[in-house]
């Protein structure tokens, strides 16, 4: 994860979209998988695709020990006694590591698997350590110097290396705390690296101006000011998480009537993995329409790196406002409660990045001083060549993040397609119900007709029987008078 002197690190987007979701990855995993979402019925009409609901695909968090962490979580999830203890645990117990005391309730077979998992991890770490030391000292031969203490702590900090044989409570405590610290640190570095990116961009612009004649420099400055002005001219950006912003998604994204907005239905529609929570990735999907108002990848005045940072700022803001228990995911209760506050109705405009400066003059001066000192110390390439390399590096970064944006767009399109599939399934269900109702009505009419016909036939039969058995009376003729 070492980053170049002035280049934006490659870890940025894929990892930053999951920041704070994993402020304790173990907590998110246990709450959503082990403890489970709150038991509640989904509103009528909300259809969830089975494949989507059962999806187990996991995003990489970018941690060196991630595979070991996931395996530990998987094993602990499989133990019924440990699951019962987790049902009463809160976010503080898990994030602080207090939940680790319940490791004593884990079955012997699971403990044995955890022991083996730790031993394999220690062996992997020893191999990695030997490779690191050998790379740092290629001429040392077979006698490698001992590694530095900070390297040992960095590499083995997620487990108790003093116990090489069994997985104990201390191992689980260290794993939880290390995961929490590392993922919080990723978010902090993201903000720092974005500031460096903005300073680098301004530095390159100024360096380009230095070598230009006065007239051309003034022309460039004017073009720069016009591009900034054009970038600022965009529709109003709704405050993320407020009523108008969510209703726009409800109407334009979900294709539903604006006046029929329902917070519970909205939550279920956008809980795409159906785990009972809105995680950071699902939240960020809600902001794309607002971001589209400000950033267009085909517009030269719009910087896609700034779009990513804007998206992260929106996500952090919504988490701060809605995530009451600070567990880095938003439950149905938290979401519904947020829609009942007075602030939810306010339609305040969101202050985008251009509304606040990302660095001070002093910070830019210190950045350029440090950059110049490193360039003079290396004294390898002429300034013009260095600038050209920096510009190429900048262009490569821009292209990289355009590619990343296309990946995000594809994910968004998949989400839209899934939503459309849900709507189609719902309509199909309605059509089938109508067809069934019509068929039932037709069958009822047919049966009624048959019953009526049978009734008529019975009446006719009874009439025929009466005529058949009734004796026929002979007609009497009047005899002539006087005839005896």
UniProtKB/TrEMBL annotation:
Where is the major localization of this protein? cytoplasm
Quick check: keyword Cytoplasm in the entry?
Answer: yes
- UniProt name for this protein: EF-hand domain-containing protein
Q: Name one GO cellular component term.
A: membrane
Specify where the region named Disordered lies, as residue ranges.
205-240, 338-484
Keyword annotations for this protein, in alphabetical order, are:
Calcium, Cytoplasm, DNA-binding, Golgi apparatus, Guanine-nucleotide releasing factor, Membrane, Metal-binding, Phosphoprotein, Repeat, Secreted, Signal, Transmembrane, Transmembrane helix
User: Which terms in the Gene Ontology molecular function aspect does this entry carry?
Assistant: calcium ion binding; DNA binding; guanyl-nucleotide exchange factor activity
- Organism whose genome encodes this protein: Helobdella robusta (Californian leech)
Record's family? Belongs to the nucleobindin family.
Q: Name one Pfam family in it.
A: NUCB1_N
**Composition bias, Basic and acidic residues:** 205-230, 355-377, 432-446
**Where does this polypeptide localize?**
Cytoplasm; Golgi apparatus; Membrane; Secreted
Enumerate the transmembrane spans. Answer: 12-33
